[in-house]
């Protein structure tokens, strides 16, 4: 039985509700779309997984407001139903010095927190971002309303020059790191090419 992974590429395309952060010529929704598409391709090539994405195309729009956009993402995952939910985002901060990767979960001390740590460790190792730890944020709708183990990955800060460079140039590496983190969590070996 294939393990079902739902990849939620955060935010809608520019020009709609629920678009993401911007910085250094990058739009969060484009970064999250592409990292999610790479991750989807990687998982689709691994027979142990079945994968779906919230945004199958860069122009896919979910919902007409922030809340309906989030609700639609959760409904897609819950109705499938997915075994794991991975939401992909890029962070932003008014202070341009703030940088690094963090992964959010509904609650610490859970399976989600262990998965989050495995993903975080791989991103830091492969992409070279700063480790900002696994953090609990029960207020996040996609973590609160999903019926499966769910994590929200803040890849890096789009508002930081060095992180933004990674978000632009290392999208495949971010995706591959999430994949390897998932394998590590599940105790599965990487497939040999």
Can you lay out the helices and strands and say which pair or pack?
Elements: E1 3-9, E2 22-23, E3 26-27, H1 28-44, E4 49-53, H2 66-79, E5 84-91, E6 101-105, H3 111-127, E7 131-136, H4 141-144, E8 149-157, H5 161-169, H6 171-186
Parallel strand pairs: 1-4, 1-5, 5-8, 6-7
Antiparallel strand pairs: 2-3, 6-8
Helix pairs in contact: 1-6, 3-6
Overall pLDDT level: 96
Which sequence of SSEs, written as H and E, runs from N to C? EEEHEHEEHEHEHH
Proportion in β-strands:
15-25%
Structural class: alpha/beta
| Low-pLDDT runs | none
Q: What is the C-alpha radius of gyration, as a whole number of Å?
A: 15 Å
Beta-strand segment tally: 8
Number of helices: 6
Distance between the termini: 22 Å
Helix content: 25-40%
Largest sheet, spatial ordering of strands: 4-1-5-8-6-7
| Main sheet summary | 6 strands, mixed
What's the overall geometry?
globular
Provide structural commentary:
This protein has 193 residues and is an alpha/beta fold. Helices cover 40% and strands 23% of the residues. The chain has six helices and eight strands; from the N terminus they run βββαβαββαβαβαα. Strands 4-1-5-8-6-7 form a six-stranded mixed beta sheet, sandwiched between helices. Strands 2-3 form a two-stranded antiparallel ribbon.
């Amino acid at each position: 039985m294939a393990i079902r992974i739902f990849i939620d590429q955060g935010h809608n395309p520019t020009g709609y509700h629920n678009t993401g952060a911007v910085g250094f010529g990058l739009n969060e929704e484009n970064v999250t779309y592409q990292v999610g598409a790479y991750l989807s391709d990687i998982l689709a090539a691994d027979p142990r997984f079945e994968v779906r994405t919230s945004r199958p195309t860069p122009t896919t729009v979910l919902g007409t407001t922030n809340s309906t956009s989030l609700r639609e993402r959760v409904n897609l995952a819950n109705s499938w139903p997915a075994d794991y939910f991975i939401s992909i985002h890029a962070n932003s901060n008014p202070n341009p010095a703030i940088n690094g990767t963090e992964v959010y979960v509904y609650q610490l001390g859970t399976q989600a927190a262990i998965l989050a740590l495995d993903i975080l460790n791989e991103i830091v190792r492969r992409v070279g971002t700063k480790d900002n730890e696994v953090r609990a944020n029960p207020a996040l709708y996609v973590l609160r309303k999903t019926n499966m183990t769910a994590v929200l990955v803040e890849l890096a800060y789009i508002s930081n020059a060095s992180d933004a460079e990674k978000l632009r140039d290392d999208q495949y590496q971010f995706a591959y790191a999430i994949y390897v983190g998932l394998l590590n969590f599940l105790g599965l070996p990487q497939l040999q090419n």
